[in-house]
Amino acid sequence: MTQSKRETERKYDAPSAEDTSWLPELTGVGDVAAVVEAGTDDLDAVYHDTEDLRLARAAAALRRRTGGPDAGWHLKLPLSQDSREEVQAPLSETVPDTLCELTLSRTRGAELMPVVRIRSTRRTRHLVDSEGAVLAELTVDQVRAESLRGMTTLAAWTEMEVELAEDTEVSLLDLVDKALRKNGIDRAARPSKLARALEETGVGGVRLPDTGAAMVEPGSAGDDVLRYLGEQVRTLVHLDPAVRRDVPDSVHRMRVTCRRLRSNLRSYRSVLDREVTEPIRDDLKWLGGELGAERDQEVLFERLGSRIEALPAELVLGPVTARLKAWNVAGTDEAHRRSLAALRTPRYLGLLNSLAELTEQPPLRRKAARTPEKVTAEAIFKEYDRLAGRVAHALELSPGAERDVALHEARKSAKKTRYATEPARASLGKKAKRLGKRVKAVQKVLGDHQDSVVARDALRKLAVAAHAAGEPGFTWGLLYGQEQSVAADRERELPTAWADASKPGLRKALAP
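and the corresponding structure tokens:
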């Protein structure tokens, strides 16, 4: 069983652990009314990582710690500059399976092993308000680190941490920081004890060499594309533990990341060799499809639930809400199991390795060395022209199933066009952003239309099930009619939205 918490802290170099006369008076800083001694603890932590330190180099840490009030296994995952999420599990001799799973997107299946031991004598003080509530915790640690990789190198230092209580505003951290700096207490050069221990005991540094960026000229087309792809890969890796823990919106964000990666690997074939990228695109399509069931269920439930809530009570006949909730529970459980199953497959592990190799050793083509303006504009034009053809085809068709399919294809093309503008913003600036915004408006119209198509299919099935159970079908039919009306409205809006996205001169404005 695991539990998690968000920790927001800053680390500082400290001259001494025994004599703390250097520590300034913090009473009166913000809402701090007093500084209260909270005792001393001896902490002993063994950090686990892969042979090539994949966790540390992804700003994550896994440790087994004894001593102190929170002894156990701790997995720290980055959130922002000062914040991390800490997932805790009870003490055991081996790494808990749950934590192994949460590290998988970073370890990519490589074996975890002890790499460094860090022991600390920690003196704790609480910064409290006028009512005695703890606002923050200030600790001074006397640290000793040793390598567990066959080396005998030792390291020792003293450091201070200021960690906010869960409900304390970040502004207090800024105020304390200002008071400390005013008294000559500087921020620590390394982001964590682990980073310093790995470096000073000779185990290794915590940064991966940026091999992908090193292969292209700064400011080139390849540089722009690789930077964007690298950001998306890091986002996917970051979201993996959130999906496994069923964090709200994580499945949606991971699915969108898959789409962005897959789309831009196609759009920028002139920069990256398609013989390498096509298998990756296939795997991204598969992963997005596996995640899609869960996201589609979530969107559909919210859509139908809001429709029912908006109806007058006299039009809701039978156990409509109860049936919708039961349908959603069954569908959500099945869809989440499908998402988790996908993340446990060898295919997913292979995808993670392929993405890491793609960003570290990119299969560059000749155009990667060119200036980005022309290369990115050409890629956007190709997607834009494909979108224009699909919109024109859909508008030529009569309302019905064939047009629904054509509009859905146009919607997917609109997404690809918008995604293609994103790597180009570094070189084309506002021009690319403006086109992306206009295409997004088209995508929104087409997206609502497609959602109505999916909703009508679900409503028909719910109505059939209600009828079989002897329940009234009136409300389900009413909702079906509403969705038909929504679809018709979106089809009428499309020409106007498309006219704005295809204004004369827009293509010329985007050209370098």
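(Above: one complete record from the training split.) The chain has a mean pLDDT of 93.
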